[in-house]
Amino acid sequence: MKKAVYYFLASLIALSVMLMTLLLMPLPKAPLVGVGGNFIIREINIVDVVNGRIIEDATVKIEHGRIASIQTGSALVIPPDYVVIEAEGHYLAPGLWDMHTHGIKLSPQLHHPLFIRYGVTSVRDMSGCMEREDSYWACPQDRRKWENSSLAGESISPRYPLQSSYQTNGGNEVPAGYSDFFRLNSPENAGNMINFYSGQGVDFIKTYADLSAKQFAELAEASREGNFSLAGHKPMVVPLADALAADMTSIEHGRLFMFECYKEIEAFREEENPLSLYTPQKIRDIVNQQDQQQCSEHMHRMAGSETYWVPTLTTIKMSAMARDENYRNDKRLNTIPWLVRALLWEPDINRAANSGVDEQGRFVHGDYFEMASQQVGTAKAAGVKILAGTDNIDTYVFTGSSLHDELSMLVDAGFSPLQALQAATIDAAVFAGRDSDLGSVEVGKKADLIFLRDNPLLDISSSLDLAGVMFNGQYFDASALMALEQYAIDMAKSVRVNLHYLMGLLMSPLMRVQLAD
């Protein structure tokens, strides 16, 4: 008996030592596979996203990470020591923006290489931290560190031009022991929240669905006084007109007009907990009872505001496709840690597949997705300002590549290929106040560029056929892009990375509260 206890304790100690060793060893960094220097790009067709045209057979000079000149119709003398890229008639477009992402502590291993691999050179992160460092979520200082390290040529990371707070959701998101002002129980709390996040260097407060009308109004007032912005979910109980009056800079996700155009929306809002009633039959009622006149009025009101919409159609497509085996077996699953697939993604997609049936036995999610997509196209035609975002880390949303899925869905919804491309380039840069530097292929701007084999203005799916990416003064050819993807695949199957992910998840008070909700 004593011998058995001894062997058990020895095994336990050995396992603990092994796990601690795995956790303490630094994770490998993404390979620095870009070629640096100044460049001459020859025989390239420039995709002019501002004017909607192709500038054919151009020569582009890149110096110190910026576009120094664009010439057509004449030979350019090649300065010594410049790297010449023979584009062979490919197409040069601005680097893409994903306007709804979520950074975590493991983003340098799991996300950043895939962003660059798929030509996403700037992102708007929609998450953050409260008053303590978090083991799971990336905090503003993490994102600034990553970007600065990338700009110094020490690592791989997209630009993070805007910083978000952690989501504010009426108080139910706040762990025990955190400052009470995060619960927004008074106007003073709202002011304290603004002051706190201002000290963190945050640009906007991320709003969420469960905020009360009173909390939202107090937060909007404090934001105005503190010269702060609101962006995120439109709270369920807050009418769209009130959200627009509060000058929300953006509203997220494709359900916006599905709710706002629902004939019984006012009665639904008056329920004690509306979202608890969001059953398959309620979804069917929402699909069947859309008020088109009301919808038109909402869309035109939003078109006249400065508020943008980020539909993230990728997120609601998951439920619509939950019963499709080809969708469920997406080859890109190899970029997702097996722990994430087992603990989070599989239960989520199974829930969508098994619980999406109305009282007549019909699967509701496909009809919902189809109507929500139509509303995105209708809103665009009405003049609503729309940006492309994915909500990466959401179930079956793949970092980097899903932005190209989103662009294709925007075109399916009624956008022209140019409009879809603008939603992920110049329009995003204008939103972020960075259009003097980014968002289009113009002299003087930073050379965040993607090399495409075919014309995306004819077929938006060409955005996915990348021959190369230029970012931060470095050129990543096709083999370099594949090396970044292979690194992300290796990290996703790494025991060490999955162990780090699990420990980060379990040690995060913010995630423990979120997962318990």
TrEMBL record:
The keyword Transmembrane applies. The chain crosses the membrane at residues 6-25. Residues 377-474 form the Amidohydrolase-related domain. It comes from the Bacteria. The keyword Metal-binding does not apply. Keywords: Membrane, Transmembrane, Transmembrane helix. InterPro entries: Amidohydro-rel, Metal-dep_hydrolase_composite, Metal_Hydrolase, Metallo-dep_Hydrolase. GO terms for molecular function: hydrolase activity, acting on carbon-nitrogen (but not peptide) bonds. It holds the Pfam family Amidohydro_1. This is Amidohydrolase-related domain-containing protein. It comes from SAR86 cluster bacterium.
